[in-house]
Amino acid sequence: MLAITLPSTINFMRTNLKVHLALFSVSLLYAATFSIAKIAMPEYVKPFAFILLRVVVATICIFLFHRHYVKGAIHDKKDLLPLVISAIFGVAGNMLLFFKGLSITSPINASVLMLNTPIFVLVFAAIILKEKLTLTKISGIIIAAIGALLLMGGTRFQFHPETVWGDVYVTLNAIIYAFYLVYAKRLMVKYHPLTVTLYSFFFGFFLVLPFGLNQALEIDFLHLPSHIWMAIGFVTIGSTFLTYVLNAYALKHASSGLVGSYIYLQPVLATLIAIGLGKDMLTAQKFTSMLVVFGGVYLASFHKKSAEV
Fold first, then answer.
1. What is the largest CA-CA distance in the chain?
2. How many CB atoms sit inside 10 A of residue 12's CB?
3. Cα distance between residue 171 and residue 101, in whole Å
């Protein structure tokens, strides 16, 4: 009996570890994105132009990677519409809404409102995928949210008439991205994750093109400084191509709730990056908040059944 169950247990542990490493890497890349994107935006690259660049570069990278390593295709024409829906919610809609919202509201408001994503993920997963809402999972999400709020100084969150539409856009972004994490899971299970991601970005390109084309034509590519090129490269390849590929892998092997819960690690990693760059200081309150976040994410990922991640 031991000889039969041991290999499957080892394989499960390896997959489990890969999923958590993938999600941690996504959080790390996203945590660095806002600071690095600000280097180029909006002085050198306007928001919607940046989105178009992200989608174009990521689509090319995914296509080359997919052609070399996967070579899969969508064999059921009925899945083309779900792929378009995934492109609307997972690529075009969430990027456009977030960048537009961030340009109107404050970074603190945007960061706090984005913490709604894992909550909406739980709701959509229960409705669409019939995932069971356990007390442990719900408690983990709440605990991680509290820790993230304390870490980011959620008490500075304020509503103002001039920022209300920005807050609305960011909230809508959190909702539709949560929907994407749940909706795309079925496609990720049916097809190779990279195949789903490729088609989503291909359709997403045509959706963001009308919004970003004029701003993209305004970019003076011939005279961009080297550090701006590096910032563009990080955002388009690191925080777009790599994050979507890693998220797609995680969605295939883990619950949507777990993938969503890792969003709470982003402010933790952003704080650690700021401390490492000498732009922030580690205090007892921040350290405690980080431990609360890690504890909440652990609870959100804890399952009694070994068949789940």
1. 67
2. 15
3. 9
The per-residue pLDDT string of the chain (309 residues; one tens digit each, 9 = 90 and over) reads 444 455 555 555 566 788 889 988 988 888 787 678 778 877 898 889 999 999 999 999 999 988 888 878 888 889 999 999 999 999 999 889 887 887 777 666 676 677 778 888 888 888 888 877 778 878 887 887 787 777 666 555 566 777 788 888 888 998 998 899 889 888 988 898 889 999 999 999 999 999 999 999 999 999 999 999 999 999 899 989 999 889 888 888 877 777 877 877 777 777 777 677 676 677 787 778 778 877 877 777 665 444 444
C-beta separation of 105 from 159 below 8 A: no
**Amino acid identity, position 21:** L
- CA dist list (Å): 275 to 27, 144, 206, 280, 287: 17, 21, 40, 5, 12
Could you write out the three-class secondary structure of 161-187? CCCHHHHHHHHHHHHHHHHHHHHHHHH
Task: Find, among 237, 230, 202, 209, the residue nearest to 36 by Cα.
Answer: 230
* Cα–Cα distance measured from residue 86 to residue 79, given in angstroms and rounded to the nearest whole number: 10
Rg (the chain; Cα; Å): 19
Tokens of residue 208, six digits: 């963001």
Burial class (CB in 10 A: 0-12, 13-18, 19+), 193: buried
Dihedral in degrees, nearest 10, Cα atoms 28, 23, 266, 130: 160
- How far apart are the C-alpha atoms of 23 and 309, rounded to whole Å? 12
Domain ranges in the chain? 20-131+157-257
